[in-house]
Amino acid sequence: MLVGEWMTASPATVDGSTPVMEAMQLLGGVHYRRLPVVEDGSLVGIVTDRDLKEASPKVTTLSIYELNYLLSKLLVRDVVKGPPITVNADDPVEWAALLMAENRVSGLPVLLAGELTGILTITDLLRALVVALGLREGGTRVTVDLPDTPGTLARVAEAGPPSNIVSVATGGVKPSRRRELILRVVGEEADAFVTRLRERGVDVVDIRR
Question: How far is CA 159 from the centre of its chain?
């Protein structure tokens, strides 16, 4: 699963010379929360609706005309944050998710051959997660607890047929050096998958149908 498969392609952008008021109106019109800032064909940063709102004058003694005048003079380049954290269209989505988590951002501009081609958001990552975990395929969700040693996953795979294991995810390694795996199985005799696991000595800790 690559970033380019899940990003929002051809996102709305603004130039650094765009007035903040115009950028705010653009965000409201397209219902986005962030805008990449492009100057001379190159990505220079990204602004969010929060950035724009925080940059707006808040002095209540000013008249509405004075506020509008100040806003008309405030440009996107005055508030843009850069250089932006980016990903490439051919990067794995999990790498993008790690970047978002470590940098506490909810959207990343996506580059292709050095040029802006899309934007990847938390919503896009959630759509990818739903597919990766096979949630729309139904079946049975089974959580198992395995020794974190080579070869133990083979016992789980052997218990699959005649059913089909459509997703495998890890819950990480516990202090006991055991690894939690979350599996989704569909198809013929899926209800008997748990029985087949236990026959092979696999510790089943949770079942959801």
Answer: 32
